[in-house]
Write a structure and sequence with these properties.
heterodimer; A: five-stranded mixed sheet; two-stranded antiparallel sheet; 7 strands; globular; B: alpha/beta; FAD/NAD(P)-binding domain; five-stranded parallel sheet; 31% helix
Chain lengths: 121, 362
């Protein structure tokens, strides 16, 4: 699949805005192109859009792996996107286990993948 | 400790309708919503609703959400607290919440729990690969944030949610490889299935997911045919390339708060999971604590709105704010609810509610 390669590129930081995953035309909904919101993901400078949650911005960048399973360290992505399942927990501005599907993206946010349960102290 | 007459947990269709009815009757209330906007799952429903005019038939879900929100704001009786998650229910109608104002305690005379539902999962190999999303998450990404959840999807589940979300994916420009369902028959309305078929999307019944494959995200899925006893038939495996596997395999009521509060609970499969046993006057077994919407048992948003109105009126009556013809209004709403549950698609709900009523008398 072409897409997984593109995603891999994005993941390496070669893709800056991930606009290819933004819906431009839709028969019912209108999505205006919104202001860019810069933030960092694992130390790399990336860009989301105003109105995004952290998870939607990362998804648009092709970054699907958000958390890691505690025992097997397997990649985990979104599942419910409404704050129920905990599959999108990440460390945001040095706070562990933030529900990235519910948290609005803000300029300058430091978003990091976290090993296992994250560092609390 | 903050004091109010009525606390409402959840700002989806049920919670909003409950708040509207209570406000109309002059009850002071606080509505807690964990997300940053009201409307719950309605805000991502781009399709037009069915049913009767009273439940906004012909109106798109997100328009219903704005209508309800406007209606609520017309009265100043209800305070809405967004980004605020209700995290606990304690004796004497005390709720604890976590939000922008920190961790707070709220005591009220009555509580309406309209906390909604969570998406079910399915067991198969590699079911935790990124790119395997619940149908609600897919709707959230594409209809709320305008982000494509993938380029090519395999949909599991041919109930109304699976069919509607598949169509929404087509509208967003996503290639829908196929819809599969382990059941021998399509679960949802024929009108939704036909819309997909006209667009050339195959719907395969008696077929399930054997496993997903991919390195760091889903790259393909292997499906397998099932016999009449739902056993996999060797040799019927099919490989489908996709970067999105969407699971639309049902919902479970979110009732942990009621369990924590000590309400009597029962597992009723037809209602989606663990639900509260009904007490007197539409309450749970806890006095002054009501439940409405999917948290009371999985149904459609239309029923959730009617249930919310009923709970709002009942709570208002309990608090001495009933209107002179409220008994009549309640009767009308109960009839509306029965109307929505009529027919083959309401059968599960009817059976589930019968079981729940048996619990009440037992």
């Amino acid at each position: 699949m072409g897409l997984s390669n593109e995603s891999a590129l994005c993941y390496d930081g070669n893709c800056e805005s991930g606009e290819n995953m933004r819906i431009e035309e839709h028969p019912i909904l209108t999505f205006e192109v919104k202001k860019e919101i810069p933030f960092t993901f694992d130390g790399k400078a990336v860009v989301g859009r105003e109105g995004d949650t952290i998870a939607s911005a990362l998804h648009a960048l092709g970054i699907l792996a958000l958390s890691n399973s505690i025992r097997q360290h397997r990649h985990r992505g979104l599942y419910c996107a409404i704050g129920n399942c905990g599959s999108c927990h990440m460390t945001v501005n040095h706070v562990a286990n933030v529900r990235t599907c519910m948290t609005k993206l803000e300029a300058g946010m430091i978003v990091e993948s976290q090993p296992g349960k994250g560092r609390i102290l | 400790m903050i004091h109010t007459s009525l606390s409402i947990v959840g700002g989806g269709p049920a919670g909003l309708c409950a708040a509207i009815e209570a406000s109309k009757r002059g009850v002071d209330s606080i509505l807690f919503e964990r997300f940053d906007q009201l409307g719950g799952q309605l805000v991502k429903q781009t399709h037009k609703f069915f049913g009767s005019q009273r439940q906004y038939a012909g109106t798109r879900g997100f328009d219903i959400a704005s209508k309800l929100e406007r209606e609520l704001h017309e009265s100043n009786q209800c305070q809405t607290k967004l980004n605020t998650t209700v995290v606990g229910m304690y004796p004497n109608h005390v709720l604890t919440v976590s939000g922008p104002e920190g961790y707070q305690k709220i005591q009220s005379e009555a509580i309406i729990v309209a906390s909604g539902a969570s998406e079910r999962y399915l067991v198969f190999e590699n079911n935790d690969l990124p790119g395997i999303y619940g149908a609600g998450a897919v709707q959230t990404l594409m209809n709320q944030y305008g982000v494509l959840p993938g380029k090519r999807v395999v949909m599991v589940g041919s109930g109304n949610i699976g069919l509607i979300v598949s169509y929404q994916l087509l509208q967003a420009g996503v290639d829908v490889a196929c819809v599969i369902d382990a059941a021998p028959k399509i679960g949802g309305y024929l009108v939704h299935a036909s819309k997909l078929r006209r667009r050339g999307v195959p719907i395969q019944t008696s077929r399930t997911i054997l496993r997903a494959e991919g390195k760091s995200q889903v790259e393909r899925v292997i499906t397998i045919g099932l016999d009449q006893a739902w056993r996999p038939i060797p040799g019927t495996e099919e490989t489908l390339e996709c970067d999105l596997l969407c699971l639309a395999v049902g919902l479970s009521p979110l009732t942990q708060l009621l369990s924590m509060g000590g309400a009597s609970m029962r597992q009723i499969q037809e209602l989606g999971g663990v639900v509260a046993v009904e007490g007197n006057e539409g309450q749970t077994t806890l006095e002054g604590i009501y439940v409405a919407g999917d948290a009371a048992g999985i149904e459609e948003a239309s029923s959730a709105m009617v249930e919310g109105r009923i709970a709002g009126i009942r709570a208002a009556m309990q608090l001495g704010h009933g209107l002179p013809d409220d008994n009549h209004t309640l009767q009308q709403l109960e009839e509306e609810l029965q109307g929505l549950r009529r027919g083959p698609f309401g059968a599960k709900t009817r059976i589930g509610l019968d079981k729940l009523r048996e619990e009440k008398h037992a």
